[in-house]
Structure formats: C-alpha cells, structure tokens
C-alpha cells in the first residue's frame, strides 16, 4: 500500500474514532429527565406546585404536548394526573432513608420557594386489587401502589403507622418539615399537591 493509501486509512480510522467519542459524549450528556420532571437520584420527579403560585393549574409542555394539570387534587385523581403527563409516571414512592434524604434535600435547596410542603405519595392502606379497589383483609398494613408487599420503610410523624380505626384516612401523604420528609395519613378525597415519579430507564 502506498504512503497516500496508508494515510487515508489512518485518517479514516481517526475520524471514526472521533465520531464515536462525539456520539458517546452526546449520549452521556443528555439530561436524564425531560422538563417538567427534575432529576433526583436515579429517578425523575414532577412536583405539581413547583412554580410561582399564579394559577390553579400547572401548564405542562412535555413530549410535544401542551396541557394543564391541576396543582392540587385528591389522591385518585392525582394518580391519574401522573399518568396523564406520562403513561409510565406514578405517584412518588419512598423505598428507603436515602431516597427520603434526597427528596428532602431537593425540597430544601432545589424546589421553588412556593412549592407546597404537603403532597400525595403513592402510599395507601391495604393492597390494591385495582386502582380504586382495596383488599380489605390487608387494611392494617400500608402499601405502595402496584406493589403486593407491605412497605418495608416508613417514616410516619408519630414514628409508627396510625391507629387501626382508620379515622385518620387511607392515603399516605409526605410533608417537608423544613428539616426532613415525614409521612402522614389523610382521607383520600382531600385535595393537596402531588408528586409523580418516573424511572428514566423504564424499570
């Protein structure tokens, strides 16, 4: 092979290597979450009240769609609200103290100053046999939506789940106290803000 041919082969290889690096860089530099979701840890979150309190609705532009989502809703409609934004989105779940800490830090340092401190999570009494139907034999325990197993991590305000008489409600909310995120229980028809989660890897 002539010197010119060798130079051409070498240049071609160099260009291919360069384009490979550019492609890899672009892939890794892509934001993990698309607005209005924010990245916290390895998941994406949508806070319904994470905006100036100008309107009762959060105007969402997401995946070439523009629509409005109420800032406050009851628990069931909040769940539907998450699915409206993205079919894979669900009300937020907290699986361990590290996830609780990460969201607390976001509330303290990253969220809009007017973001509501109390919001619905995906927790509820009893295992759901459908989105609006509960297995009544399991009402003494708390579950995350679509998880057949009871919660393995809780952080209720009184350091223990509420009493079994259920007068305090069936649905679990989260409250940022200014220092930490704690869990509480309220009637499911109460209208408060909500937070959705989305796993960007689809897992």
Mind explaining what this structure looks like?
The protein has three helices and twelve strands. The protein has helices at 3-29, 75-85, 97-109, and strands at residues 38-40, 43-47, 57-62, 65-70, 90-91, 118-125, 128-130, 133-134, 142-144, 171-176, 181-186, 193-198. Strand 7 (128-130) and strand 8 form a beta hairpin. The longest helix has 27 residues, at 3-29. The chain starts with a helix and ends in a 5-residue tail after the last strand.
Q: What tags apply to this protein structure?
A:
203 residues; single chain; eight-stranded mixed beta sheet; Mannose-Binding Protein A, Chain A; alpha+beta; 3 helices; two-stranded antiparallel sheet
Strand-helix topology:
Blueprint: H1 3-29, E1 38-40, E2 43-47, E3 57-62, E4 65-70, H2 75-85, E5 90-91, H3 97-109, E6 118-125, E7 128-130, E8 133-134, E9 142-144, E10 171-176, E11 181-186, E12 193-198
Parallel strand pairs: 6-12
Antiparallel strand pairs: 1-2, 2-12, 3-4, 5-12, 6-9, 6-10, 7-8, 10-11
Domain C-type lectin: 62-197
Organism: Drosophila kikkawai (Fruit fly)
Protein name: C-type lectin domain-containing protein
The number of domains: 2
Q: What gyration radius follows from the Cα positions, in whole Å?
A: 22 Å
Give the overall shape: globular
Instruction: Tell me the name of the CATH class of the largest domain.
Output: Alpha Beta
Summarize the structure.
Residues 62-197 form the C-type lectin domain. With 203 residues, the chain is α+β, with helices and mostly antiparallel strands.
């Amino acid at each position: 092979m002539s010197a010119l041919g060798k130079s051409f082969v070498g240049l071609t290889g160099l260009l291919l290597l360069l384009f490979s690096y550019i492609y890899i860089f672009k892939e890794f530099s892509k934001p993990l979450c698309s607005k209005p979701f924010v990245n916290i840890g390895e998941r994406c979150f949508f806070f319904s009240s994470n905006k100036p309190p100008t309107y009762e609705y959060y105007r969402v532009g997401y995946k070439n769609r523009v629509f409005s989502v109420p800032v406050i809703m009851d628990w069931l409609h909040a769940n539907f609200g998450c699915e409206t934004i993205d079919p894979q989105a669900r009300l937020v779940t907290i699986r361990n103290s590290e996830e609780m800490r990460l969201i607390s830090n976001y509330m303290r340092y990253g969220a809009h100053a007017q973001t509501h401190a109390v919001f619905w999570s995906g927790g509820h009494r009893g295992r759901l046999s459908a989105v609006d139907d509960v297995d009544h034999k399991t009402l003494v325990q708390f579950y995350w939506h679509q998880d057949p197993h009871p919660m393995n991590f809780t952080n209720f305000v009184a350091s223990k789940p509420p009493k079994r008489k259920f007068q305090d409600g069936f649905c679990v909310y989260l409250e940022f106290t200014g220092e930490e995120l704690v869990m509480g229980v309220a009637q499911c028809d109460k209208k408060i803000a909500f937070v959705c989660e989305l796993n960007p890897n689809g897992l």
